What does this fold into?
Amino acid sequence: MSGDISISAILAGVGANASGEAETIASRRNPLVARCRAIARGEAPEALLLDGQHLIDEARHAHLPLSVVAIESRLLDDPSSEAAALARQLSRADTRLLRVTSEVMAALSPSRQPSGLVAVGSRPVHDLAAILAGRSLILVAVDVQDPGNLGAMIRVAHAARADACLVCGASADPYGWKALRGSMGSAFHLPVVRVPDTREALAALDAHGIRSVATVPHGAPSLYDVNLDPPLAVLIGSEGQGLTQEVLERVDARLSIPMAAGVNSLNVAATASVVAYELVRRRDVPR
It folds into this structure.
């Protein structure tokens, strides 16, 4: 299956239930299975595929619309379970609630070990210019291709109270299911914007008076000696190559994290953590 998959198409063939009770799906041939697999492959750029109670709860707390929630029968049959409580709440909401067999859940879920809950929803939509206006700290991921690493970086940004994340170049999809699992839902609680052209992102930062600082493994002033006054954007490059020379020539400053001899570099999420919490320390954000 290829091509963009719309939210309305996801519901095609599922059937309505005006009573609010959970509908039952017992066949892996149900159209919803194919739709979820297409979303997992990245063929539905406006859709989210959420696996697990935590991500679904985080999406709901962020008021993201969920069109479908599928829950495995064994969880629904336990009235004391969190899933059963969720189902009772959804019966009063504008969300299609489905009861599915374990076989169907295994087909719906992108995970090798399905949690028993899967949801389909709509992605947040953010305007780049509106996000940058008045922001003081932006984390910029450039060519970070591992979705787990990207998700962890977004979680770090959320934890350190950054204002937004820009995801640039050949980076993974920040709203893909693996990145969402890595961010543990943090992508729902701060603006995350995909900007494919890194030059466009840098130009937008310049236009809004936001200084750009690039992280490099070695050869730049220490993190602890660099001016990090806001408004500031911190750029972190790919796992293998880091930031390109073109990007490094466009930024306002560079910094390196002091490391012991023999250590070439830190993981991108670790780099984000060290830099972000140095900023937290300097900003003296109340905790």
